[in-house]
């Protein structure tokens, strides 16, 4: 997901410090959620072996369902980011989401 490890003394307020036997061992800096969405989309594209925009409609719908399960649409501009990656409109992404909820 693109996190980074750093010494615990360099941890910021949003970093997660992990301790071992009562001693701070390492800090983990998680990426911003928007960056994570880009990583997820890139991984999906690699998994399909071609740009997401080149996939058929059914596969795009499956991708939208998988992304919704991962919380992709709680990210600011998540729908827009996914729409661009899939080569569809925001309206189409919303239709895919609504279709799943009605099933």
List the helices and strands and how they pair.
Blueprint: E1 4-6, E2 16-20, E3 23-29, H1 33-48, H2 57-69, H3 78-86, H4 90-102
Antiparallel strand pairs: 1-3, 2-3
Task: Describe the model.
It is built from 4 helices and 3 strands, in the order βββαααα. The protein is of the alpha+beta class and 103 residues long. A 3-stranded antiparallel beta sheet has the order 1-3-2, with no helix packed on it. The longest helix has 16 residues. The radius of gyration is 17 Å and the shape is elongated. The mean pLDDT is 88.
Give structural attributes.
103 residues; alpha+beta; 4 helices; 50% helix
Short description:
The chain has 103 residues and is α+β, with helices and mostly antiparallel strands. It contains four helices and three strands. It has a three-stranded antiparallel β-sheet, with no helix packed on it.
Counted by DSSP, the helix tally is 4
Give the C-alpha Rg: 17 Å
Largest sheet, strands/sense/barrel: 3 strands, antiparallel
Instruction: Describe the strand arrangement of the main beta sheet, using strand numbers.
Output: 1-3-2
Shape: elongated
Structural class: alpha+beta
Helix share of residues? 40-55%
